[in-house]
TrEMBL record:
Residues 54-385 form the Aminotransferase class I/classII large domain. This is 2-amino-3-ketobutyrate coenzyme A ligase. One of its GO terms (molecular function) is ligase activity. InterPro entries: Acyl_CoA_acyltransferase, Aminotransferase_I/II_large, AON_synthase_class-II, PyrdxlP-dep_Trfase, PyrdxlP-dep_Trfase_major, PyrdxlP-dep_Trfase_small. It comes from Flavobacterium limnosediminis JC2902. Coiled coil: none annotated. Keywords: Ligase, Transferase. The keyword Hydrolase does not apply. It comes from the Bacteria.
Amino acid sequence: MAKIRHNNFFDTINESIAEAKKEGVLHLYSEDEHLTGNTIKINGKELFHFGTTGYLGLEQDERIKEAAISAICKYGTQFPLSKTYLSNPLYNELESKIELMYNIPPIITKNSTLGHLGVIPSIINNEDAVILDHQVHWSVQNACSQLKLRGIPVDIIRHNNCNMLEDKLKLYSSKHKKVWYMADGVYSMFGDYAPIAQLLELSKKYPQLHIYFDDVHGMSWKGKNGTGFVMSKLNQLPENILLMGTLSKTFGASGAFLICSNPAMREKIKNFGGPLTFSAQLEPASVAAAIASANIHLSEEIEFLQKDLERRIDLFHQCVSKTDLPMIELNNSPVFFLGTAMPATTYKLIQKLFKSGYFANPALYPAVPIKNTGIRITISRHNNADEIKSLVKTMNDLLQETLVETGNNRQKIGRAFNTNEYRISKEVPLKTPLRFNIKKTINDFDKNTWNNVHNSETVLDWDLLHYLETVFKNNPASENNWEFYYCSISDEKNQIVVATVFTLSTWKDDMLFPESVSLEIEEIRKKEPYHFTSKVLAMGTLFTEGNHFYIDNAHPLAEEALKLLLEKAEEIYHESNAELMVLRDFATDNKWNSLFHNHGFIKIDMPESCIFDKMDWKNSNDFKNILSKRSRRHFKDEILAFEEDFAVKIKNKLTAAEIDIAYNLYESVKNKNYAINTFTYPIEVFQKMNNHPQWEFILMYLKKDNTDRTIGIAFCYKGNDHSYSPFLIGMNYDYLTKVNLYKQILYQILKRSKDLNFKKVNFGFSATFEKRKLGATAIPKVAYIQSRDNFTLERIANIQKK
């Protein structure tokens, strides 16, 4: 009954990337006829290149380029044969060179992504468990998705959180032969490191712990023979650690490799590692280039290159230390992150840097959480001292004006990245002729004024909000205690430009995930009732749906008013320590989509909302004629054919016994439907409903029972905007299909609204198919969400992929 359309997160990601493309900061093309590594030409302008991952500049080394050219002349552009059968003539030499670097024979792969896909399913047995660092590279997470099909548990911990890792080890080590932890050596966005020393201590304490490192961003610029950051901490590779390195990026060639010190495991991977077996092998040019680079790595020259890069990194450090640029995770890797928090600031600052002659990478969702956007700056040997100094000065000169232009400040950045250094910055209030008003109770908001601005789009009238305020307070369970924030913004003439209500309440994190996910989580909630729940600041309430937001789009200050609302909502969000902010329910094509995105919100699909407004009918025959041909048959066979079986009563007040029965019927529906998974309302909701003049109850009985035994009930609100809203329904499921009870309740709701001369029925979410068959219109809706990080949603998505 409660099937709904769930959000497709690929659409969410596509929306985010599409916005960045529109701003001209992603999916760009280099226009150079000849690349040097120092500059890059985009849109006809030559820019200093601070976005490369070729940190040592080896991709431009003449020896490596000449080796690749020579290999093409000798062996052709490719060696079109699976490596399982025969390797091209250069492979043996490359493997020998990599073995000299690590003192362990390598397994060469086409690239690290295919390498993970080949290795991970091969090394993880059905008796094992896997724990992922929240920020481990997507290619590792993607490879682990195959494991779930085999029933292997794949869990996630917060980034570099060894305490959380140990808790998971305690959970899994007694049940699984091996527990694999997967992490990056150097993380590609913030340039921070895996806590290797702590991981080694944990491996001593928990012998089941095995570690899989992706160290492609730690290669070459660190470690003896350029063996990478991880090896610089290990010196030699234990059998319980596997390492994926790269032949591309800093190595200057193409491809990747796995280092495994366990000979039996290495042979198993090599014999049948999925893509390692069936994919094409590296081209002769790539192998020859990798051999030439390996020769450099095996010589004393690599230490000179590393130190030369280190001097440039140190210079960048020195220059940044003289500014108040909000750099995140400053360390000695070549990857740096300038936090901006808001996508709008990132876009604008990147555009200004381009105009000033500098190329850097925008770091955007989903690579980072939506409010952890920023600019990733990489330092390479291609960058000279003057360019590094000039870049830092330019960023410092441009940042403040960019923050002002985008309504941002350092305090917001500090809050987004949880850095105390920037929290102490004083926030500069916006200069505006608009006035912001906030009330904590609807009693302080003039009734006529409120109803005038919320008069047709939603069931959000003054009386309903007053009822909700009385119901959702002073309850024993925390989820049934809500805080209300009535916000309005007026111009100098006291004309309301924007008005809405926010509520602060506890939500189930899986509320809009598929039912299968909620069913799995609900099993855990039997012991841990608040597992996967969060404090949420949301536009509207969990009880209502429809447009909770009023804006006078024709007002010349409409956009400024909306920005002010977001500014004030963010203050409430942080002061209340909410974990999620939700703006709902907007039309899919609303004009403010880009503004919400630029202020750090991602768009998600909401369930469709159903409205019935075809009130020009007098009887069942008239009603049938407003339906489609197929729906008429459905109405005749599944509803009219059973209508005479029912006795229907409309009551404004129930007895105490009837309330108990009604509540049991409500619980029956609630406990069978997880498509929109919320907390069960307490009985006080219905007791206070019973004493409110605008609520009434449609009770359903079976005539043949000759009793007053209620088998169905609709809890309906008579809105001030002439709308009729069945907020909740209760049913005895024994009669769901016998007499089509649910369908009959829907029809009786329509009849009652017609008798009351109401203009429309707000049918709400879920069961869209059944409501459409009765003539309702399904209206697509979207919400905009902002979270402190992606961790919780990704953990739930991880359940969804099982």
